[in-house]
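Retry 2 of 3 after timeout on previous attempt. Resubmitting structure tokens to design endpoint.
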């Protein structure tokens, strides 16, 4: 819990300086029970900073908690690519404040658009510790090609370090 408090002190300072932001809640290193405890703590902190939560759909207990508390309309839901075709009513776009999806191909990008998501994260652009299994990366050229033709806002799945920001801006980012 001390780590969470320190993390949120930094986020609070960031939000006061820069305005509202989106925080994707995802930690596959925590058990479902630990994720629920962390989310409950975050929900309590949410009044202290202007942020929107984006909940990763992979933790069923979190989805259930948010919907049971009637909070889904105030948060976002992030869908893994493999769930874009899901007919599960808990993932219906109308239940959530906003919805994003991870995509890795032109076909998945089209599927996300037809599902009605608000934005996508596309990649993997460059090798990243969060997806070590992805050995085939799009690179900036592949990313730019797919993102340029997208009717949706597109964000890159890329391990970003401050030193890489200049390169990303030169290549495609805004």
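Retry 2 succeeded. Sequence:
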């Amino acid at each position: 819990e001390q780590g969470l408090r320190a993390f949120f002190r930094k986020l609070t300072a960031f939000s006061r300086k820069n305005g509202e932001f989106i925080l994707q809640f995802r930690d596959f290193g925590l058990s479902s029970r630990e994720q629920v405890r962390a989310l409950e703590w975050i929900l309590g902190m949410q009044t202290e900073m202007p942020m929107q939560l984006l909940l990763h759909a992979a933790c069923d207990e979190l989805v259930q908690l948010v919907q049971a508390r009637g909070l889904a309309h105030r948060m976002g839901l992030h869908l893994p690519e493999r769930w874009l075709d899901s007919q599960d009513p808990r993932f219906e776009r109308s239940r959530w404040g906003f919805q994003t999806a991870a995509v890795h191909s032109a076909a998945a990008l089209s599927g996300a658009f037809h599902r009605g998501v608000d934005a996508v994260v596309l990649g993997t652009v460059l090798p990243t510790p969060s997806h070590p299994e992805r050995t085939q990366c799009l690179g900036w050229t592949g990313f730019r090609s797919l993102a340029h033709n997208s009717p949706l806002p597109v964000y890159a799945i890329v391990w970003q370090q401050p030193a890489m920001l200049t390169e990303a801006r030169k290549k495609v980012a805004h």
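Attempt log closed. The chain has six helices and six strands.
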